[in-house]
Amino acid sequence: MFLAPYFSEQNQAISVSAQQASDFAKKIAQDFNPIHDVGAKRFCVPGDLLFALVLTQYGLSQSMKFSFAGMVGDSVELQFPEQVSESFSIRDSREKTYLNVSRHGDVSCCDAQTESFIRQYVAFSGHNFIDILIPLMKQHQVMINPERPLVIYESMSFDLTTLDFVQVTLSLIGQDLKIDGKRGDVTLHFELHSGDTLVGTGIKTLVMSGLRAYDEVLVQQMRATYEGRKTDY
């Protein structure tokens, strides 16, 4: 299982250390958000790693929705239920909920298919900041706080017309930013293809907080800092 280096399992609990989370973000997702760095003041495990662990544990369903309810810290023990229904949650040992999942339709437990799906989706997520969020901020003439550039992963869902595929590719087909005061709700629409065949569609939502007037110089500094982190790695 390709996720094996990025989590630990003991006494039926799954945990992710800061180092494992950082390695997943940078090696698999190409995500260089400092919130996933070892020692980060507001460190959290990437939401995409939780998503990937759910798919690995329970298979790929035709219709799934993931709603994030909290940020997972370093080595938090997460309980993944042995048996799940159409709706379930990932909680810690104190019953704090971090992720709510709903799923419908047929289920596939093909390792190659699941890995392809995960790799494509998290690679897409890793490019969100530079390729999508910065152009959206410029278009709407707003920006996040450059001193605390926090973007929160809110939810992700997809619907597949078939599970008859192994390899899949993902492409962005639309993006939207709705502004409400200092809050910005970002909606990304994507398609999933197997070769030339459309096999599904999906939606990802993000929240940008602390919005203020757009400043090209500061935005380019944020871009340079992010890309510099990637180059240094």
Instruction: Give the strand order, joined by hyphens, for the main sheet.
Output: 1-2-4-5-6-3-8-11-10-9
Strand proportion, as a percent range, falls in: 35-45%
> Shape from CA axes?
globular
The biggest beta sheet, please?
10 strands, antiparallel
Number of helices: 5
Helix content: 25-40%
Please tell me how large the radius of gyration is: 18 Å
- Tally of strands: 12
Termini separation: 25 Å
Helix and strand content put the structural class at alpha+beta
Mean pLDDT: 94
Low-confidence spans: none
Task: Sketch the topology as an H/E string, one letter per element.
Answer: EEHHEEEEHHEEEEEEH
Short description:
The chain contains 5 helices and 12 strands. The chain is globular, with a radius of gyration of 18 Å. Helices cover 30% and strands 36% of the residues.
